[in-house]
């Protein structure tokens, strides 16, 4: 299996670490971390990313703005995006999905659920 690179965009170092640990169960997984949407876009433009996992509530640029910008760029049209957030309201999920997110997970996350969604999106 070819190596997969995941971009985790999350302002909490602890949450990034938790997501990283879960993704490391996928053989050959590589992780790039970003602390907000602006940092995430910079890292997206300089790395070959296979899937983005992003929070919504972050300083500087939130996850919804990030999803909107990623989806408006033709180069990233097919890139899967998973939202991981504390925002559990149906309206928040519908807005994220309407902007182009592929999956929406509310915190606290379960590693098995996260891995199942990631594997499904990447057809692993």
Describe the 3D structure.
- The chain is of the alpha/beta class and 124 residues long.
- It is 42% helix and 20% strand.
- The chain is built from 5 helices and 5 strands, in the order E-H-E-H-E-H-E-H-E-H.
- The protein has a 5-stranded parallel sheet, with helices on both faces.
- Helix 1 (13-23) links the parallel strand 1 and strand 2.
- Helix 2 runs parallel beside helix 3 (63-71).
- The N and C termini lie close together (9 Å).
Characteristic terms for this protein:
alpha/beta, five-stranded parallel beta sheet, 124 residues, globular
Brief rundown of the structure:
The protein has 124 residues and is α/β, with parallel strands linked by helices. Helices cover 42% and strands 20% of the residues. The protein has helices at 13-23, 37-46, 63-71, 90-99, 111-122, and strands at residues 4-9, 29-34, 51-54, 81-85, 103-106.
**Overall helicity:** 40-55%
| Lateral strand order in the biggest sheet | 2-1-3-4-5
What series of H and E elements makes up the topology? Answer: EHEHEHEHEH
Please describe the biggest sheet, giving its number of strands, its sense, and whether it closes into a barrel. 5 strands, parallel
SS field, number of helical segments = 5
- CA distance, first residue to last residue: 9 Å
Poorly predicted tracts of residues: none
Q: Tell me the structural class.
A: alpha/beta
Mean residue pLDDT: 95
Strand content: 15-25%
